[in-house]
Amino acid sequence: MTAPTFPSIDYAALAPVLVVFGAACLAVLFEAVLPLRGRSRVQLGLTLVAVVAALVAVVARATSGAPAVSTLAEALAVDGPALFLWGTLLALALPSVLLMADRSVEPGGAFVADPVALAEVEAESRVGVGASRGGSRSAGTSGGSAGGGGRGARDAARAEGHTEIYPLLLFALGGMMVFCAADDLLTMFVALEVLSIPLYLLCGLARRRRLMSQESAVKYFLLGAFSSAFFLYGLALLYGYADSVKLSDISLAAAGSLRPDSLLFAGIALVVVGLMFKASVGPFHTWTPDVYQGAPTSVTAFMAACTKVAAFGAILRVFTVAFGSTVWEWRGVLWVVAIISMVVGAVLGLTQTDVKRMIAYSSVAHAGFLLLGAMAITPAGLSATLFYLLAYGFTTVALFGLVSLVRGPEGEATHLSAWAGLAKRAPVAAAAVTFLMLALAGIPLTSGFTAKFAVFSAALADGMTPLVIVALVVSAVAAFFYLRLIVLMYFSEPAADGPTVSVPGPFTTVAITLGVVVTLLLGVVPTAVLGWVEGLSFLT
Amino acid sequence: MSALLLALLLVPLVGAAVCGVMATREHLDRAGKAVGLAFSAVSLVLVAIVWAQFRTGPGVPRFQGRLSVEWIPAFGTRFALGLDGIALTMIALLAVLVPIVLGFGWAEKLPPGRTGAGFTALMLATQGVLVGVFAATDVFLFYVLFEAMLVPMYFLIGRFGGPRRQYAAVKFFLYSFLGGLIMLASVIGLYVASDARLGEGTFDWTALQGMAAQLPLETQIWLFLGFFAAFAIKAPLVPLHTWLPDAGAEAPVAGAVILVGLLDKVGVFGFLRYSLPLFPAASRELAPLVLTLAVIGVLYGALLAAAQTDMKRFVAYTSIAHFGYIALGIFAFTSQSIAGASLYMVNHGIATAMLFLAVGLLIRRGGTASMTEYGGVGRAAPLLAGMFLIAGLSTLSLPGTNSFVSEFLVLIGAFSTRPVFTVVATVGIVFAALYVLWVYQRVFTGPLRGAAVVGDGPGAASAATMSGTDDTGDGSWARRTTARFGDLTRGEVAVMAPLVALVLVLGFFPGPVLEVLEPAVSATMAEVGATDPVGPPTPINGVPR
């Protein structure tokens, strides 16, 4: 009997991931042993320290010029794009954590104190509504709306009890980091589950509108489970084809072999479907609006920014490393997917009346744009997509941070009509939203334009002129609904009983400011980041 | 001169920022307006200095006062500015018009909750970005500013405009944005082509001009069409013009002046600076298409102008006719016609500004833009009628007014290469006389009636209240306006007087402006590869060429 051989582990390269997962495990322990009082502060501190430490480790590694390595028995590739994606994920997680931790906007935080106590919360809030608002809106009609005002001392004391969001967030973040660095499909699948399951939970934790939040969690879970199954099935087929789950082996097998192609293409199709689902690329986007709307806004911010980064990171890697040799076989199909995604996102976005749903459809359209860059499979396409992810992530996080500030008596007022005349009540917030909307629309001097420009020029250089033209037309269509919000905020008179804009606490202020500043800087002086992404290439 | 040029770009932007901050404080509103006016005056002085330093005559470089700073090396784009004669005249016109419209807007009644300082800030922001648009010598920078200039104008229309301002603002934005995006495809296409041909992607206008002119015709045509979409919407040429009457009618008068007088000029400026030099073969190939649209615009704009009852829409439609002439001049490819078109860009700005402002003064008194509400205004307000008449005569290109010179140059220049189009377009002159004089007749002559009799419409009442804060010191004006339809105040005369002077001076002495334009025109002619058909052109108006 031979002694088992252990794979060599490059701890230095893995440091960021280890920090995040280590902190996540520690956070679970804290959850078990620390007293309730003050626990959330400790957990928040731990999370922030972990994210910052991991970020420092990533930057140190990226600037040290250490060579790209594939470690852990070649399960994880720590190469240039992986480091950039890790950095992006961690940089985006920072404002997301701050948004989740904020308790000044929603007293006690945006998360339900005790997830199982639905009935009690409902009853309590109904009493609260009845007492303070004269029953202006019953909880039943809105499908489980929770009222304002009904937060007694008991509730405030229990508010400490939602600290499990921090370990959940850390696990999701760690999963995302592994997901976009995974060098074989099996690792990728495990990472997919690690990142998804905490997200399913987080979606269901909203303090207000409990039923909608739980519905979104169930929807996300069910559809997510299906997509995981797709991915797993595709993985199995590809393993059958290539006798390996390693990305580079699949590429080699596909490049020169007489094996039956049906296994390969069925496998590619199923794996891509699974990835597209996570990236909310149309037509696999159907969960996106519901989940974005139902989840607590800070979780939506995290999902919208980080999940997209992780999913596209994985898509880029899989396309380039595993399926690069067969690009001409599958790209035609992806043309259609990209067009569907862009058109569906822009056209359905037009009809939305809820801000969060509108941003969700906008994210579907943006996923289509991102796919353009990802499909190019050229160095320019890779760097453009990476840049786009960073730019889009910060814009989105800041935008959701601002959405969480606009509040009516029943929590966040996300219906478009509630935003009428907002500029008069809160000029600074309205100006920030306007700027971010212009960034999403791709107006020059914002990061959105720089990113679009980079992606479109990469796509055009790779011969995708018709797609670029579709993308440009779609951008114009999508601009309409971004503009509509600006019109509402600036050109309409405010409703008499409209929502108020909360004064954000320090955490939310920092998160929003960070997002707005990055959006501006990447629009005006993107040189540093463009310089970083320019020379990156995957380890093959 | 580079430093001056940069200052020309930055001064309005800084002014916009200052006014924008002041607009958030109610008590700083008046001070904000004054500060804005001061900033625009500084711009005017700067332009005068640049104009004095600008070298003319043969052998001057294509661009003067060049300035080039590395911006985004990954895209090969630089922050590069430079002036040719056409850009300089546009910037000068802008610098002249902005203080005038700010002066006009001083006493303007604003929608509730809007501040004059905010208005001034948006106006200065538009000015700053427009200076950049005209001065950019980097195609990427041009595109960036081309799109960015939509934002302040969008807010100007949407926040300060008339009853249908939301619709007009969004329509304006979406039309221009769509055009811009189609242009973006071509901009990227140019970049990709330069990457392939020059070894590295660049947006430098000069480098691209040398490169793009060598591209095969088919590629040129596609790229040309991308730019053309944006410029034709902006100009606007006829099938793409529908946003202009809405935007012109709903924008506040001062905003409409800048919108129609200058922002739209970016379209025809783009033809001259980008379409012709970058894609000469495609320009020549597609000239008949553009000329057809131009001539249709001349006639269609004139006919619709005659049919309007809303005076702001009327001015907007006359502009569509004039843009037709400008496009005709540009795509006829003769020195005279292009020089005429370039001069026309200036003259149309002056004439339209004056016409819009005269209409604005009328609305301020009568409270409505509808022609049918007025009659015999000339009796009550002879000065106002005179101003309108001068503006109208300039619009219909009466000899002795500024527009005559340019229209004549366009037609005489275009006739030598495109006789048929020119003859058809000449019919437009007759229409112009018709629509201008008809409006004058209906509104300003005959017996007093409608809003002109009492003059107590909402506009007059507001003018009366506003005059309390009027710095002209003419307190009697308030009483007169409430008593009857008042004539122009001294302040209003002061606003209009520079325009009257420009109309007459440029009508008799266009030489200095033509001199500045000439090198740019001959450079454009050389770039598009066109030669004048009949020897050296004869001197026009004593201007040696």
From TrEMBL, chain A:
Topology versus the membrane: Multi-pass membrane protein
InterPro entries: NADH-Q_OxRdtase_suN/2, ND/Mrp_TM
One GO term (biological process): ATP synthesis coupled electron transport
The NADH:quinone oxidoreductase/Mrp antiporter transmembrane domain, residue ranges: 182-474
Keyword Transmembrane helix: yes
Extent of Gly residues compositional bias: 141-151
Keywords assigned by UniProt, alphabetized: Cell membrane, Membrane, NAD, Quinone, Translocase, Transmembrane, Transmembrane helix, Transport
Biased composition annotated in UniProt, kind: Low complexity: 129-140
Record keyword Transmembrane present: yes
Subcellular location: Cell membrane; Endomembrane system; Membrane
Enzyme Commission identifier(s): 7.1.1.-
Record-level Gene Ontology MF annotations: NADH dehydrogenase (quinone) (non-electrogenic) activity; NADH dehydrogenase (ubiquinone) activity; quinone binding
Transmembrane segments: 12-30, 42-63, 83-101, 165-182, 188-206, 218-242, 262-281, 301-320, 332-351, 358-380, 386-406, 426-447, 467-491, 511-533
GO CC terms, sorted: endomembrane system; plasma membrane
Region (Disordered): 129-155
Complex and partners: NDH-1 is composed of 14 different subunits. Subunits NuoA, H, J, K, L, M, N constitute the membrane sector of the complex.
Family statement: Belongs to the complex I subunit 2 family.
Main function: NDH-1 shuttles electrons from NADH, via FMN and iron-sulfur (Fe-S) centers, to quinones in the respiratory chain. The immediate electron acceptor for the enzyme in this species is believed to be a menaquinone. Couples the redox reaction to proton translocation (for every two electrons transferred, four hydrogen ions are translocated across the cytoplasmic membrane), and thus conserves the redox energy in a proton gradient.
Entry protein name: NADH-quinone oxidoreductase subunit N
Organism: Actinomycetospora cinnamomea
From TrEMBL, chain B:
Keywords: Membrane, Transmembrane, Transmembrane helix
A GO BP annotation: ATP synthesis coupled electron transport
Location, primary (coarse class): membrane
Transmembrane segments: 35-54, 86-107, 172-193, 221-240, 252-274, 286-307, 314-333, 345-363, 383-400, 420-440, 493-511
Family matches, as Pfam families: Proton_antipo_M
GO cellular component term, pick one: membrane
Location of the protein in the cell: Endomembrane system; Membrane
GO molecular function terms listed in the Swiss-Prot or TrEMBL record: NADH dehydrogenase (ubiquinone) activity; NADH dehydrogenase activity; ubiquinone binding
Record-annotated NADH:quinone oxidoreductase/Mrp antiporter transmembrane domain positions: 136-431
Topological type in the membrane: Multi-pass membrane protein
Record-linked PANTHER family: NADH-UBIQUINONE OXIDOREDUCTASE CHAIN 4
Family: Belongs to the complex I subunit 4 family.
Record protein name field: NADH dehydrogenase subunit M
Record organism: Actinomycetospora cinnamomea
Lineage: Bacteria, Bacillati, Actinomycetota, Actinomycetes, Pseudonocardiales
